[in-house]
């Protein structure tokens, strides 16, 4: 994609869980996961889960620097949260439009 050195951004869906490393907690919206830990990784942004408009808006806001969007197809850390039908398909289309890698993290479910 040709992103300038140290400018790449990664977008995450909120309420995510993918571990306890510094990178993982840097994308967390759960204070019990990140409070008291650090330093946080730079260039990580978070949007609401299951919100395609937020995904499109965020990627469009900085299309040259977003490298990836990471989300769980079904969130499983705090119960089972299923997105609207077609969410992942449409997320893939939006990511492709902006040349952004879609990372589907499915560990919990």
Describe the structure.
The chain is α/β, with parallel strands linked by helices and 109 residues long. 28% of the residues lie in helices and 17% in strands. It is built from four helices and four strands; from the N terminus they run E-H-H-E-H-E-H-E. The protein has a four-stranded parallel beta sheet, covered by helices on one side. Helix 3 packs parallel to helix 4. The mean pLDDT is 92.
Beta-strand percentage?
15-25%
Query: Could you describe the largest sheet, including whether it forms a barrel?
Result: 4 strands, parallel
Percentage of helical residues? Answer: 25-40%
Instruction: Give me the count of strands.
Output: 4
What's the gyration radius in Å? Answer: 14 Å
Secondary-structure class: alpha/beta
Any low-confidence stretches, pLDDT <50, length ≥5? Answer: none
Mean pLDDT: 92
What's the number of helices?
4
Q: Compute the separation of the termini in Å.
A: 32 Å
H/E element sequence: EHHEHEHE
> Strands of the largest sheet, in order across it?
2-1-3-4
């Amino acid at each position: 994609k040709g992103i300038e050195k140290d400018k790449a951004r990664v977008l995450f869906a909120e309420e995510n869980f993918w571990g306890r490393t510094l990178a993982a907690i840097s994308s967390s919206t759960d204070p019990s996961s990140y409070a008291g830990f650090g330093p946080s990784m730079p260039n990580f942004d978070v949007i609401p889960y299951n919100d395609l408009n937020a995904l499109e808006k965020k990627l469009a806001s900085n299309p040259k620097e977003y490298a990836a969007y990471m989300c769980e197809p079904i969130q499983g850390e705090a119960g089972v949260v299923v997105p609207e039908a077609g969410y992942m398909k449409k997320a893939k289309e939006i990511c492709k439009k902006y040349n952004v890698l879609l990372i589907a993290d499915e560990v919990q479910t």
